[in-house]
Amino acid sequence: MTSINTITPQELKNKDLYQDVILDVRTYREYSERRLKTDHYFMPLDSLDPYELLLKRGLLKDTEIYCLCVSGARAKKAATKLAEAGFRNLYIVEGGIGACEQAGFEVVNNTGKSQVVQGGMSLDRQVYITVGTIVTISVFLGNLFNCLFNYFAFAIGAGLIFAGLTNRCGLAFLLSKAPWNKQTVETVSAGGACSGGGASSKSTNNTPPPSKNNNQSCQ
Fold it and tell me: Is the pTM of this model over 0.85?
């Protein structure tokens, strides 16, 4: 019988994570910015494949799996998907990775470092270019044709304020879904080197952010 329960980060610290599995189902962008040092698997929710975990990763259907995201919503969806595939012992980590960090889990934090997509342009630069283009065109059209075009610039400004206050940028999220950004996301370290690992591999303390292409070189 399938069981989906919740578990606190404090309780998770007492589990045998050599036998059990933490499964991080956040996006590549979120994972590259911050991830657990503790051994875990990483597989984004939108590409979660329960049968790969069974056949390629050797997990058993009675393995205890602790699904991790930011708030618990995606972890619940992941647990439901795994339950439908026959996994029986599933848990949602309460409070997500933020609560884990507060509970004392060691975390690799790369927040603020540029993410480079295949082709060499960071997501941040794509946001800057898009925002600048929209503002420039809207102001130009507003002065030339109709002042209503200026509201586009106003909307962009309001969006930037929201992004600054919440650390959530809707435009960055949309751009991350663009075809040219779907292939690989890597994090550039302070020294400028980049590296990648299997997207669904089990990460260890020194495992770099994931890459869908193990043979990719740093741009």
Answer: no
